[in-house]
Amino acid sequence: MSLLRIEGLSKEFGGVQAVAELSFEIAAGHIHSIIGPNGAGKTTLFNLITGVYTPTSGQIWLADENLTALSTAMRASRGLQRTFQNLQIFYNMTALENVMVGRHLHLKPRLVPALLRLPGVGRADREARERAAELMRFVGLAAWLDADADAMPYGALKRLEIARALAAEPRLLLLDEPAAGLNPVETAAIDELIKKIAEAGTTVVLVEHDMKLVMGVSDRILVLDYGRKLAEGTAAEVRANPDVIRAYLGAGAAA
């Protein structure tokens, strides 16, 4: 079953086509990677899917709903979440509070009860904290439950951002360069976490330059070149594709 469907998607900036007539589908429960040289249109595609950019033409479907005209917030409420290559962390908050921010879609506005300090407010806060703590353990951050965000190392902050995205209970999670800047041990932890997220039922779309990680976790891989689809298939198919080797992977990739 297709969860995300992209149909004839294009985006122009001042006459330059960043994404050109792109069509593909992502099956529910899969890990789907998007790769390509710098400037291939990967981040532009993420921004189109999440509503940061409006397409010049084409459509974006999540399950049976057309998202093309919906705002970023409305797409999030439909089950679409993302992380960013450059960390978007609230450094003046604790790690736990950062994850709790991700729960806002599932918390009803409670201004009057909060002002009156009614019992239900305390209960909702406790439940949000408990769920945030569960997610921190899930992503491997149990040791940082009581930490301030600004005291955490870079690799832990990468996983913290993923935990915050998961707090919104997404159907589709877009990860933009989750292994960027990580050492081999931290990258291996991200590798396992991505698999764990998919096994738990969340569909993952991944933009990543670490080809070892991509080839190891992906059910399907889409290769972009100058905003166009160059190839699509399994890791083995993409690795052996001569067009992909010439444009991106290099001659040693098929070995």
Keywords:
six-stranded mixed β-sheet; Rossmann fold; globular; alpha/beta
Description:
The protein has helices spanning 42-50, 72-77, 95-101, 111-116, 119-138, 154-166, 184-199, 211-217, 235-240, 242-249, and strands at 2-13, 16-27, 31-35, 57-62, 65-66, 80-82, 172-176, 203-207, 220-225, 228-233. The protein has 255 residues and is of the alpha/beta class. The protein has two domains: 1-79 and 170-255, 3-Layer(aba) Sandwich (Rossmann fold), CATH 3.40.50; 92-169, no CATH class. The protein has a six-stranded mixed sheet, with helices on both faces. Strands 2-1-4-5 form a four-stranded antiparallel sheet, covered by helices on one side. The protein is globular, with a radius of gyration of 19 Å.
**Topology order in helix (H) and strand (E) letters:** EEEHEEHEHHHHEHEHEEHH
The span between the termini is 33 Å
List how many beta strands DSSP finds.
10
Bulk shape? globular
Helix content: 25-40%
Q: Strand order, biggest sheet?
A: 6-7-8-3-9-10
CATH topology label of the largest domain: Rossmann fold
Question: How much is the radius of gyration in Å?
Answer: 19 Å
The CATH class label of the largest domain is Alpha Beta
Which strand-content bin applies to the residues? 15-25%
Q: Class by helix and strand content?
A: alpha/beta
Runs in which pLDDT lies below 50 for 5 or more consecutive residues are 111-116
Domain tally: 2
Q: Based on the coordinates given, report the CATH architecture of the largest domain.
A: 3-Layer(aba) Sandwich
Overall average pLDDT:
89
CATH superfamily of the largest domain: P-loop containing nucleotide triphosphate hydrolases
